[in-house]
Amino acid sequence: MRVPDWLRRLWHPRRTIWPTRDGWWTLFAAMGLGVAAVNTGNNLLYLLSSMLLAMIVVSGILSEAVIRRLRVSAVLPEEIHAGRPALLGASVQSLKRWVPSYSITVEVLDGGRAGRYIYIPHIPAGMRGS
Questions:
Q1: Could you report the per-residue pLDDT of 65-100, keeping only the tens digit for each?
Q2: Domain that includes residue 104, residue range
Q3: Which residues of 18-45 are buried (b: 16+ CB within 10 A; e: fewer)?
């Protein structure tokens, strides 16, 4: 029996999302509120804990939607000479039909670590940003 592609992508996504430092603090706060809610039986603490956990889930879904269907291509100069510096660029194209992408940062790696950043604040759906 063959597993459908959409089900395989659901269980094995192409990339994983890890929380940032602030995300870890939010997770710890939500767990602490959950423990306090169980200990006291206070419904307001249950509500606050569930709202924090929902905020984390929505943040993950939106961050995946922003990155999905973006294509990055290099913009090369017409001539490159040996031993002389060359200016390279990047072009990011959105292949989405309806949803724009916000706050995209492209990192240029230099020897395995991030050397330069290109920040694109907004890419409308179906357009190109550079």
A1: 888 888 888 888 899 999 998 888 888 888 988 888
A2: 70-77+88-129
A3: eeeeeeeebeeebeebbeebeeeeeeeb
Euclidean distance between CA atoms 47 and 45, whole angstroms: 5
**What does the radius of gyration of the chain's CA atoms come to, in whole angstroms?**
21
pLDDT in tens, 26-66: 889 889 989 999 999 888 988 988 998 998 888 888 888 88
| Two tokens, residue 62 | 């939106």
Q: Which of 115, 64, 55 minimizes the C-alpha distance to 90?
A: 115
Residue 1 in any domain: the answer is no
pTM here is 0.65
Quick check: is 8 in a domain? no
Number of domains present in the structure of the chain: 2
Q: 104 lies in a domain?
A: yes
62 and 25, same structural domain? yes
